[in-house]
């Protein structure tokens, strides 16, 4: 049995090395959680974030206390839990044949009217049964979920606070207001604390012979930025129970378009706890608020185009991933369209991909907002199952738009 395990790990490792040898490889800037969370007033003119976010559009946060173990304990049970939940959660077939299953939820901002504007509220997962009746895998997943989401939330706030400090007076204020002008969103941390945070837990499986097309085409996400855990490969047995004797390993297949236009494989490793990747919102409501002087213009944040290309694997494996999209405040007003960001999102959610006009919800008039499923029209499992649905058909928490 040990020889089998060793053989599997060596095969995966050799495959990763051979793939990387043939492609451009990009290694993200790594910043420790301690440095990110340090009081910026006691750091002498140090730019932790802006330089990398302006050039690359992403950074990795490492050494988050206890998070590495917490993340693996949670994600080890995600795929098995999704399989046991059956049709309770969405399932899409991507254009390359990859099957993606999703648990979606959201963290809501505090209520300004009650004075709790900074009190983010994680919404519960909509299980198909009560917590006490959940399967063993879902119970193991669920028991780690609160601490996982809390840690992501705290790290997101630390990132927003640090980025606000580094952008400083280079941004005009306020960045946004409500339609009636009764409330202002003055800086980055105001936007982050006042917007909804969509959260998706995905499992991906690509088994058998499938197309060599990309799983998800090159795109930028519509939010201000996304926070995600690099993909992990998990194992399960014939009964789709987690095989905890086989360690989780980092997945290949995540690509970015670098600032020089090259498409590069991102080289993640076990030290990468959370990745912060800028979205189209950086162009929509941050970069257009930079002052005209050269120092301020050097802080222009780069929305990072990225893609996913998964390879066929054994059916005892799955790639698991978590992402959180930071949306702008729903009641923030867009003067150019005479709508709020909430209005725009509701409009996009109500329309099929083909009916969404270019430019709506994106920074460029040539970009079309899509919900990111890349699914086929129908999926056949041998018994003519029903057609795959768009993410937005499952409810607004599944509308993960991209430009």
UniProtKB/TrEMBL annotation:
Residues 106-128, 370-391 are annotated as: Disordered. Residues 376-385 have a biased composition (Acidic residues). Residues 1-21 form the signal peptide. Keywords: Signal. PANTHER family: CLAVAMINATE SYNTHASE-LIKE PROTEIN, DIOX_N DOMAIN-CONTAINING PROTEIN. This is Uncharacterized protein. It comes from Chaetoceros debilis.
């Amino acid at each position: 049995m040990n020889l089998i395990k060793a053989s599997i790990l060596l095969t995966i490792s050799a495959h990763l090395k051979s793939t990387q040898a043939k492609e451009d490889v990009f290694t993200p800037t790594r910043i420790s959680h301690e440095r990110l969370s340090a009081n910026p007033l006691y750091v002498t003119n140090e730019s932790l974030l802006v330089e990398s976010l302006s050039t690359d559009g992403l950074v990795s946060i490492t050494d988050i206390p206890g998070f590495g173990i917490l993340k693996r304990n949670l994600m080890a049970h995600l795929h098995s839990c999704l399989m046991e939940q059956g049709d309770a959660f969405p399932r899409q077939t991507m254009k390359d044949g990859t099957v993606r299953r999703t648990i979606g939820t959201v963290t809501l901002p505090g209520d300004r009217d009650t004075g709790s504007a900074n009190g983010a509220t994680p919404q519960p997962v909509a299980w198909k049964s009560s917590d006490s009746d959940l399967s063993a895998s879902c119970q193991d997943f669920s028991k780690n979920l609160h601490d996982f989401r809390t840690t992501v939330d705290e790290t997101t706030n630390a990132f927003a606070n640090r980025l606000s400090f580094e952008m400083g007076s280079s941004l005009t204020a306020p960045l946004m207001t409500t339609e009636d002008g009764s409330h202002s969103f003055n800086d980055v941390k105001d936007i982050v604390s006042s917007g909804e945070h969509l959260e998706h837990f995905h499992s991906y499986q690509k088994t058998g012979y499938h197309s060599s097309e990309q799983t998800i085409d090159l795109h930028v996400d519509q939010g201000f930025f996304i926070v995600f855990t690099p993909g992990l490969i998990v194992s399960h047995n014939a009964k789709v129970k987690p095989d905890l004797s086989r360690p989780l390993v980092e997945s290949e297949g995540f690509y970015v378009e670098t600032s020089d236009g090259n498409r590069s494989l991102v080289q993640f490793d076990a030290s990468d706890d959370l990745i912060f990747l800028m979205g189209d919102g950086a162009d929509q409501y941050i970069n257009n608020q930079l002052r005209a002087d050269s120092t301020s213009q050097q802080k222009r944040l780069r929305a990072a185009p990225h893609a996913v290309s998964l390879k066929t694997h054994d059916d005892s494996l799955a790639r698991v991933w978590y992402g959180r999209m930071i949306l702008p405040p729903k009641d923030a007003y867009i003067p150019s369209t005479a709508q709020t960001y909430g209005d725009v999102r509701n409009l996009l959610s109500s329309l099929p991909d083909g009916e969404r006009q270019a430019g709506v919800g994106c920074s460029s008039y040539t970009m079309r907002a899509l919900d990111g499923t890349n699914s086929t029209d129908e999926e056949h499992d041998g018994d003519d199952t029903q057609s795959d649905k768009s993410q937005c058909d499952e409810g607004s928490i599944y509308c993960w738009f991209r430009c």
